[in-house]
Every structure is written in structure tokens, then in C-alpha cells.
Amino acid sequence: MAIDYQTLRFEYRRHAEQEGGPAAAIHPVIVVGAGPVGLATAIDLAQRGVSVVVVDDDNCLSTGSRAICFSKRSLDIFDRLGCGEAMVEKGVRWHVGKVFLKDELVYSFDLLPESGHRRPAFINLQQYYVEGFLIERAKALPNLQIRWNNKVVGVIRRDAAQPGQAPVTLTIDTPDGEYTLDARYVVAADGSRSPMRHMLGLESKGRTFKDRFLIADIKMEADFPSERWFWFDPPFHPNQSVLLHRQPDNVWRIDFQLGWDADPVLEKTPERVIPRVRALLGPDVKFEIEWVSVYTFSCLRMDSFRHGNVLFVGDAAHGVSPFGARGANSGFQDAENLAWKLEMVLAGRAPDSLLDTYAREREYAADENILNSTRSTDFITPKSPISRVFRDAVLTLARRHAFARRLVNSGRLSVPALLSESTLNTPDRDRFDGAMMPGASCVDAPVTRDGMQDWLLGHIGNRFTVLVFAAAQGLRAEEKAAIERVRSLGVPMQIAVVGPKETSPDAEQWIADATAIGAQALRDVDGLAAERYDGAAGTVYLMRPDQHVCARWRHVTANDVSAALARALGVAGALGVA
Fold first, then answer.
1. pTM score > 0.85 for this model?
2. Given Cys at both, which of 47, 169, 338, 542 links 551, Cβ 3.0 to 4.6 Å?
């Protein structure tokens, strides 16, 4: 029987700290907020062996569709968290978008024009489903507990905690009264209004846009394709913009631009919503309204995402307009960036300063998202007559000229941040072509393993990964030595060897070599892995646990890998042998 996530309620339970006994041990990590980003952070940590407590001031999932567009990068993250298949199976796949001016098609675009990827460019899936699937995964992890109806009402941060003293203490309010929780680290994932941020006297800064938009989730059976349709100045909603998306369960999401003077209470009434929807769909289409909301938005962020042992993620740290699906998708990238670094610091494999790189990398990514989101908003909602003339001229030219299409901005869609300036990267010393430079997030490719169809990204991530592109004749001695050195450094590591697609008996030595060094042997069945990674024989990559490239070489030595791994951990010098 399917779970109705919209009506699901979770039980409040008392915990040991509420019984007034001896003080509990200091929790390694407490996550504040059981929304999508908080849950993703907690699951990632728990899968790494870190005990996590999640506290949430509510006992239910989100209402309405809210965030619905989840990018391929987020789906890759969900795969690592153990719930990607459920998301994709339920979600509506799409990769084509169409842009209209008035009632005429300007152009269409394809977000995933090439084959050879496990996951689609995007899926549409209501936020309550995403939260529900994440919670189901969380329930399967014994070192992760979620405490519902546990509201944080006080925070004490000790930047110079004494031995045995908690760096952070939270005061929690419950139906049974207050109690305290001690933590070594706290992850604040409590949303755009972030009580944690306010309790610490912090703020976000940026720009608030003076415009209002109506979201209408409607249920209907329609033969529209699963595409993103965006109208500028349509005849059924003149001088404004409209966005149409398909969701699961025959639910369609429509965003209507209203203007700043619109009354947000009045615009949510059926008397105002139904005529707008009918003007779009036509008088004969039958539909039901599931959920409506009127929103304004800001593009802003905190000055720093780290404050001592409290780290901010997702909407608590940064906010963007909904155009481009950058909010939740960037939040999941926050989660994966932070989780592996917390694991390494808690295990004593990296200094506490590694967490500063979380802040620097994700602040950079937030600035990039805010820039693109602001540009989208300015194009969609011109703030002056000159801006509108420019926009309409661009749209008119875009019908016939490809150069103008690059200027159209109906919400440039979320892409993973390129962390090329990260201090954790080892600069290239060899010549490479292609996009897989240090700082890039890894791309997928089809492979086979033991004759079975597989995907490259399934063998990269969660731990540091050494990826070796082998010649058919096998691995060179220096490659084997580098791998043997890696295995002695005391850092969780996995090795994958990608070999050519040839299958003749004299072209299989690479498989024997991979097996001998305890590596996964992956056949590059279509040659796409070598193409996308510029993976000539002998090429070696080092990947971070969050699937970002941190080093690559044409010819590698043991010292190369040791030094690059130390740099990726924020450790001075090369790592010693464990």
C-alpha cells in the first residue's frame, strides 16, 4: 500500500536526555531541521559511520509541491545515499524546455543532448516525496535518529571548549518540556528563516525582489508532454510570465507572475486562481486545485557558512529565486561537501580547518547561484522600460538566430559548481582536454563489470577514489606502486581500473592486474569514460568522497598520490604510512 506522504505524521518520543539522569555523552553531530537538505546531510554522515541526531520542530513533511525540479547532480547524490532509484521511479523525467513569446514558440533546448548517463537531466517530484524517500532511507540506518517535535530554543557556542566540555549545547523544547543536547558539531539546516541563525545573532544579506508569484498545483489529465514550458507575455496572462511543469500523480505546477501590487491573500482564493488556470488550459479542461501559494523571494546569503562548530547548509545559509531550480539542488551539494569533511575531522584524519574549506567552497557556489538567479529574475521581470525593450528584442531575434538564444534567460537551470580555485586541488602539471579538471564534479559513463551493465559513478564517491585508465596490456609498475602506497596511508580508499572495450584474450591483462591489487575492473564498453575524462592509457585521477576531481596525472608516482591526498585533506606535507 502506498504511503500518503501529505498526511503522514511522525510520533514524538521521549529520549534518555529527558529523564534527568547523568549527562549524556557529547553527540558527534546534531542536525537541526528534517527537511531535504538536513536529511541528506544526516544520511550521508550515518553511512560514513558517524552517529547523528536530527531534531525538528514539526512532525510532518512539507505541504504542497515546493521544490520540484531535481537535477542530474542531485540524482547522483541520491544514488550514493541509497534512494536514487525510488526518486527516479516516482519522478517525471524531462530534459526538453520550450520558450514562448506571447503565443509563439521562440525556441526549444535539450539539457542532456548526449546519451550514456544513468540518470536524466532532471526529474520533477514534489518535495514531500523527496522528504519521504529520504526518511525511509534514514530509518534503515541504526546510527541515525530523528526526534520529532523537538524545537531548538537556545544555543550556547563554546569556541574554546575545555576538555570534556561540549563545543555546542542546544536547548530543546518538547511537549514534555525542555532539555539540553550536547554536540561536537551542529549542522543548521532549518530553512530560510533559520531560528538557529537568529539565535546566534547572525543574518543573511542580499537583495529582495519586489514581485509576487502564484504557485498553483492542479490535478488534471492532459496530453501535454513532460517538458518545461515558459511563456513571456502570453495572451492568457498579458505583460507577465507563466511557467508550466508536469509532476507525478497527474499534478501540474503552474507559476503565474502577479506583480508587486497583487494582494497575496486575495490571489490565493479560488475566485482568482480558477480563471487564471482556465485562461491557460481552455474552458473545457477539467481540473482540481491541490495547493496554492503566493510568494516573494530574495537572493542572499550569510557572510560565512561556518561559525565555530555550527555550520549552515541549504536555505539557512543562502537563498535564491526559484528560477533555475538552484535552491534545493545547491543545498544537496552543501550536504555532500560537508559530510565527508566532518567524517574525516571526527575520525582524526584531517584537521578541524578542513571544515573552513566547506565554507569557502560553498560560499563561492552560493555566489555563483545568486548571480545566475539574479540575472534570471532581471530578465524575466524587467525593472525599467529599457530593460523590457532589450528583453523583447532578444526574444524576437532568438526565433531565427542562435546567438540570441544564449541571451535568453527564463531561469538558467542548476549545474554543479566548478570548484577550480579550491585549495584542496592539486594543479595539473600535464596537458588534458575536456571538462574533468580539478574541482569539477564527476560525470557518468556506461561500463561493464564482470560482464554486467554498470555505471562509472557507482564506483566513485563516499570514499576517496583512485581511478586508473589502463592499457589492454595491463598496469605499469609505477601505477601499481602508487596504488600500494595509497592503501598504506590509513585513509578510506577505493580503487577502480577502467580498461578498454576490446575482449580478445591478449587484451585482458588489465583485468588480472586490477584483481591482483584489489581494484574494481570496469570495462569502458562504449569508450565514453575515456572520452569524457580524456583517459589515455596510464592516466590516473584522484576523486574526493563527494565525487569532485582533486588531482589527475598522465604518469603518476606514489609520492604524487600521497601529496595530493594530503592536500585534499588539508594536511601539511605528504601523508605518512599508517
1. yes
2. 542
